[in-house]
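Can anyone check this?
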Amino acid sequence: MKLEPIPITLTRCAKTFRGTRVLEPLDLAIGAGETLVLLGPSGCGKTTTLRMIAGLETPDAGGRVAFGDEDVTALPIEQRKVGMVFQNYALFPNLDVRGNIGYGLKIQRVPAADARARVDELLAMMRLEAHAAKPINQLSGGQRQRVALARALAPRPRVLLLDEPLTALDARLRDTLRSEMNTLLRELGVTTVYVTHDQAEAMELGDRIVVMSAGRIEQIGTPREIYFQPASRAVAQFVGTLNRIAGEWQGGMLHTSGGAVPASAPQTIGAAELYFRPEDATLADPVGAQLRGVIEQATFLGERTRLTIGGAAPDALLVDVAGRVELARGTPVGISIAPEALIALA
């Protein structure tokens, strides 16, 4: 059931509420059929951006929203042909599953036979056939989520918009449905904008991620670019865990208290601050190691153990090692970091 994808373009879109600017002017191009994730903390402007795409908010004067070549800035949501799934799903408690899925088709006055065929198609896609006649209050959280998604897809929208649709679910169910949704979005091929504050959702679902902070776009890139090549400390610290090391940059080497570390940081750095992810370091013999410290804490996390290591850098360092490793507090350790894993941030 492929939907015809269209590109979306936002030009100089800002938003002010009661004299307070909550979204700075932004330009954003979303490719046809792309799943774009808006990622950031509460209040960063991601939901406001989504609502402008939907037609639930109008950008400040001079802002423009286009679907393909069509300027939709002044069009209300009902004329934009978008499907939207909210955090609380907003399902109708007085309708059963079939009635909820077919609601948009009824409003559009789609012929009854066509509407029934479309609802049957979506019931099968979402594995809800056995629940078609059930009231909403008899469904699990995961089933309600699939009903909401099916209802959004029923009118064959040009754009699919999802506002934190998995937030209300428990962790295990959220992981399962995230994987299912990823598969479904790839099959549909519809242009999708997905809002979340959860980095795991963003990494799994997004073709590209827009990291937002304080009403601004910090960085746009693929999940790998955002994770391995963050454009700022705000991005690096919001997406994943980051360790800081400091030293003097001389001739292609970072000279730290533990010795010289080869690194591919810019030559413009003198007194350097470089960063690395916990999984990009390995333990080494303290003698001759790039960095040396002692174990302050070892936290067993199942598939890995996270070590907190003091004395090796200005701040305690976090290093992830295989889960079966056991190290006591106070154990001296060395830390080795792959040169390509070092991140230089201004």
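Reply from J.R.: I decoded it. Residues 263-271 have pLDDT under 50 and may be disordered.
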